[in-house]
Design brief:
The chain is α/β, with parallel strands linked by helices and 198 residues long. Helices cover 28% and strands 18% of the residues. Strand 2 and strand 3 form a beta hairpin.
Length: 198
């Protein structure tokens, strides 16, 4: 199978929301219903559509259309969860799925090396392939690729807008998180299980 694809489903809606003052800066969030997380993108430019034939429908950040995903993000912003919970619309190859699951298990504010992730999924010689899989990550924060570093601890390979400076800022923010100072607003109860992985 391809490394990543989105299974076809007639009638799926594609919501896209933007906020310029999140705790991690300007953030675009794209979700599919039914399906799950589709895109997260930093900075003022909206993300590309996830596949040909898809058209984003812009919604307000406060819209009820994507309320459970917003609640999941705000739980992350408030320090209540290590990663935003919930499903994603993507279908990944078994290798990429394993890499992303291992990345989601990295505790908030901590880092692991590409080699450590490769070992964790039983592929100790696949550090480079791990890096390549993370470089294609369409949903940063949900899959926290900013927590993965080079063997010597250097920050490497962050392909999101903002590059390595943003990677460093995300780690510093997670390490110094004060829930009272970073919550956007009182988060509504999420319909996702906030205790575990998606």
């Amino acid at each position: 199978m391809p490394d990543m694809r989105i299974p076809a489903l007639p009638g799926r809606r594609w919501w896209l929301a933007y906020r310029d003052d999140t705790p991690v800066g300007p953030l675009w969030v794209g979700v599919a219903e039914p399906g799950g997380w589709a895109r997260l993108a930093f900075g003022p430019q909206p993300p590309a559509v996830p596949q040909p034939g898809v058209a984003w429908q812009r919604v307000a950040w406060e819209s009820t259309a994507w309320a459970r995903y917003r609640a999941a993000l705000e739980a992350y912003f408030a320090g209540q969860v290590a990663v935003p919970p919930g499903p994603w619309v993507w279908e990944f190859s078994p290798f990429t799925q394993a890499v992303y699951a291992a990345a989601r298990r990295i505790p908030r504010g901590e880092t692991r090396t590409y080699g450590a992730l490769a070992a964790a999924i039983g592929r100790p010689r696949a550090a480079r392939a791990v890096g390549q899989a993370l470089a294609r990550n369409p949903i940063p924060l949900v899959v926290p690729c900013h927590r993965v570093v080079a063997a010597n601890g250097d920050l490497r390979g962050f392909s999101a807008a903002g590059g390595l400076a943003l990677k460093a800022r995300l780690l510093a923010w997670e390490r110094g998180l004060s829930p009272a100072a970073t919550a956007l607003s009182p988060a509504p109860t999420s319909s996702f299980d906030l205790r575990g992985d998606s």
